[in-house]
Amino acid sequence: MRDFTPPPVTATPPARPWVPLAPVLSRASFAKGGHAPVGNILDAGQVRLVTSGRVAIALALRAMGVAAGDIVLMPAYHSLSMIPPVLWRGATPRFYRVTPHAQVDLADLDARFDHRVKAIVVTHYFGFMQDMAPIRAWCDRRRVALLEDCAHCFFGEQVGASGDYAIASSMKFFPAYEGGVLASRRHDLAGIVLHCAGAGFETKVVLNTLEHSFAYGRLPGLRLLLAVPLRAKDLLWRLRKAGSARAPALAPASSDSEAGFDPAWLDKRSSWFARLLLRRVGHARIVGRRRANYAALQNACSDLAGARPLHAVLPDGACPWMFPLVVDAADTVFARLQREGVALTRFAETLWDGVDASVCANSVYLSRHVLAFPCHQELRADELAWLVDRIRAALQS
Question: pTM here?
Fold first, then answer.
């Protein structure tokens, strides 16, 4: 284990956070863990492994028959990346309300419904599942297709089982550069045929996954061994970009945290390396470590003024994506933590044009006040302790 030296406070944000925001590959990634395994999205029927959650959304909408003139009900609290697949189908997103704790407002669904509504997307935020039984019943009564968005919720009993289709973002839970899941228990996925995206894509996934790991001090022996090939790769990448400004992307925009959607990735399967990690990385360890790290963050923030966890309790069996903290002075705290190199994100910080307090005041409030911190399985004890210390200092100042 490398020594973790707390970084000094800087005047400007560092190039990257001092601890990893997302899982990074390490030797410990492959440990099985001492906790009983729970279900996951891969158990939710037939599965297709694609390159991102938004590609899976697009494939699901196409399979549902969503087309021009249709309405897709979307949560007003959302990632911008969820919307382009709807527009690609020629449909119109219509946004429904959520409660203060990001649960579906069932009464508002009735108010938003008309004969043009073809499908609804329901999101399990931060790893906390919605109560799906009443939502499934609502869809059945109105003959509306249900897309279960499990991008934040890869693990858990019955994850993905209620929707006509379900999607997930495996790269939020596994130490891989890309990866998404389309699953269905109710429909045949045999018609969805996927192909390899090519040697360049396969190579980039391996190298980017490893470089991200090396940047945070993991796998030092392998880093030394690959030092020369990685330098050569950087040179080739630069020459490729300089040689053709219109060269096709070697990986989807989602892998670099961009919100764009490129239909060229619809028929591309997830890389060999990402699929290998899905099988080999310890599932029970992911769940156990994430729950333990979440509990540590929740305990650390329980007595702080001006902040409170979005959820008071982590349900049994739930595997969190991140730790969401509602902060009164969110802008000030966020800016300070960024300057200090703290890893955090603001899910739904920017909402789709036209989604304001008149559409859903709770969504606007959550987008402005929820700061989400990493609780993934690859955080080491010293990194978690430093993260806790920085959060407490920022909120007590």
Answer: 0.92
